[in-house]
Design goal:
Largest sheet: 14 strands, antiparallel, barrel
Number of strands: 17
Number of domains: 1
CATH topology: Porin
CATH class: Mainly Beta
Radius of gyration: 24 Å
CATH superfamily: monomeric porin ompg
Structural class: mainly beta
Strand order of the largest sheet: 1-2-3-4-5-6-7-10-12-13-14-15-16-17
Shape: globular
Strand content: over 45%
Length: about 350
């Protein structure tokens, strides 16, 4: 009886792991602060020459071994390429994710390219399109999992062999994404930003064994963000995000407030909250310091998992660093006198 119960519990756990792993991609609560992961058309869409972005997320620490996600991206915008009337964006990204008792790991290396056309329709509209290719590798440590043959009749015994024959502990694949964005100025104080993206266009195969036929479902997402300058020092920034992957969908709504500061170093602070419907409320806080834009968030879980999670969801940190081109220094006051021979 205990043997069958152990086997049943393991099967339930394994099925739950499959839902978590194969139904969801790497994602963050601070969605717009991981732009290359959100949409390849966001590559190079910023007011500087270079951008570095880092994101870290830790979740489900109260339920199991914490799920940890790290992302680092770099992108660059370039103008006047063969007299094109716009900008080209190039980006490179690295993602790492480790989940659950089996340390199910995901490594991604992404290469993104985009084209941004500005000042259309009397300078009221900017549009961009982007494409992304990524190399992905998934791994699992079967030695960290528990199997029914390791139950000795009274308890789990790690010294017993699992007697399982796994064909491999890793697989890899290429993946492709395509996206669009548009900026429209409803007024000087109310720009609107919209995006749409299609991930996993090729629906790559996910399999630790050749006999498996799991495929990564295509994912569609669209989003809308506003930035209303309500006064000299305040901005109100509502946002909406929608994701659809297979039979799973996610709706995200947020509201941020930004206070601009009269300080040479600390330029602004921002705060607000978001709701991932059916899952969590996210509290957010951030500030701009020189060329750094730093954000913190905390997920308060209210889904059916709250019984196990004790409402504790995730902690997330993001850092964005912009690099501007330095103009050559010209000394207008100490010019050298000509030398006459």
């Amino acid at each position: 009886m205990r043997h069958n119960l152990f086997k049943y519990n393991f099967l339930v756990w394994l099925l739950s792991l499959e839902v978590l792993v194969f139904a969801q991609d790497i994602h963050f609560s601070q969605l717009e602060r991981s732009p290359i992961n959100l949409n390849p058309a966001e590559t190079g869409r910023f007011n500087a020459q270079h951008r570095l972005v880092a994101n870290y997320r830790s979740q489900w620490a109260s339920v199991t071994i914490p799920y940890k996600t790290f992302s680092a991206t770099y992108d660059h915008r370039r103008a006047n390429v063969k007299n094109w009337p716009g900008f080209l964006g190039l980006g490179l990204g690295f993602n790492s994710d480790v989940a659950g008792d089996g340390h199910f790991g995901t490594i991604q290396v992404k290469l993104s390219g985009s084209y941004l056309r500005t000042q259309l329709f009397d300078s009221l509209l900017n549009v961009s399109g982007g494409f992304q290719v990524s190399y992905n590798q998934n791994t699992v440590d079967f030695n960290r999992l528990y199997f029914d043959n390791q139950f000795n009749g009274s308890q789990y015994d790690p010294n017993l062999l699992s007697q399982e024959n796994f064909q491999g502990d890793r697989f890899s694949y290429f993946d492709f994404s395509l996206g669009l964005t548009a900026d429209y100025y409803l007024s000087d104080k109310l720009p609107l930003h919209w995006g749409i993206v299609f991930h996993h266009l090729n629906r790559p195969k996910l399999a630790f064994a050749d006999a498996e036929q799991n495929r990564l479902e295509g994912k569609f997402n669209t989003y809308l963000m506003l930035d209303w300058t309500s006064s000299k020092y305040w901005s109100i920034q509502p946002n909406l995000f929608y994701f659809r992957q297979g039979t799973y969908d996610e709706f995200f709504m947020g509201l941020m407030f930004e206070k601009r500061l009269n300080h040479i170093d600390f330029r602004a602070i921002n705060f607000g909250l978001s709701n991932r419907f059916g899952d969590a409320v996210i509290f957010r806080l951030g500030f701009d310091y020189r060329s750094f834009d730093i954000g913190f968030s905390y997920d308060l879980n209210y889904s059916s998992l709250r019984v196990a999670s004790n409402t504790i969801g995730a902690i997330e940190i993001s850092v964005i660093y912009l690099m501007y081109k330095r103009e050559p220094y010209i000394d207008k006051f100490n010019k050298l006198c000509p030398v006459f021979l």
